[in-house]
Write a structure and sequence with these properties.
Layout: H1 5-15, H2 19-41, H3 48-57, H4 70-80, H5 85-92, H6 101-107, H7 119-129, E1 131-132, E2 135-136, H8 139-149, H9 153-167, H10 171-175
Helix pairs in contact: 1-3, 2-3, 2-7, 3-5, 3-7, 4-5, 7-9
């Protein structure tokens, strides 16, 4: 099952997500819908229902943990709920700009690759990086946050480039046309 918006919000309620988490997920979903529409308009085959569900549910794991493991924890919750694997993988792979198998092993995660690979996964991951709380903000703010935390800025920039290559224009300019 690919949850629609009402079903996604019901899952948040079931697992006790705060309004802050739900509002953040709604903002990420808004940005993801904008990028999904722009990609579809350029003839790119994307699954808008999976993108919407993945964006709305990407932080459901934060009901159980505030750590970097919230992606795979949320994916596990959604698997138990019978959510389609395409959505589960969006949730599993949205943290940071992705987590390599080696990084996952060092963090004690279950063995696996947590880097966004599909266009749907990349759209949600990038949209999440463009949102702080419930506001879409400039990409360079997230770059600075990555630098402060010692995260892989190169992988973050590559994520943006991958989407830009698919769109043929800067995704930030689509999300923040007045900046």
């Amino acid at each position: 099952m690919i949850p629609d918006e009402g079903q996604a919000i019901a899952l948040h309620r079931k697992y006790g997500s705060s309004e802050r988490i739900v509002n953040h997920c709604r903002t990420v979903a808004h940005g993801s819908k904008i990028l999904s529409s722009a990609l579809a308009a350029r003839g790119k085959g994307v699954d808008p229902a999976a993108i919407l569900a993945g964006a709305l549910l990407h932080d459901i794991g934060r009901t159980m943990t505030q750590g970097v493991d919230h992606g795979y924890v949320g994916a596990g919750l959604l698997e138990k709920e019978g959510v389609d694997n395409v959505v589960v993988e969006i949730v599993r792979r949205h943290v940071g700009a992705g987590i390599s198998p080696e990084e996952a092993a060092s963090l004690g995660f279950p063995k696996g690759d947590y880097i966004p690979r599909t266009l749907e996964q990349k759209v949600v991951c990038f949209s999440d990086k463009m949102v702080s709380a419930d506001m879409i903000r400039p990409f360079e703010e997230e770059v600075r946050r990555f630098e402060r935390k010692g995260h892989d800025v190169g992988r973050l920039r590559q994520l943006k480039k991958d989407i830009q290559d698919e769109l043929g224009e800067d995704p930030e300019k689509i999300l923040l046309p007045d900046v």
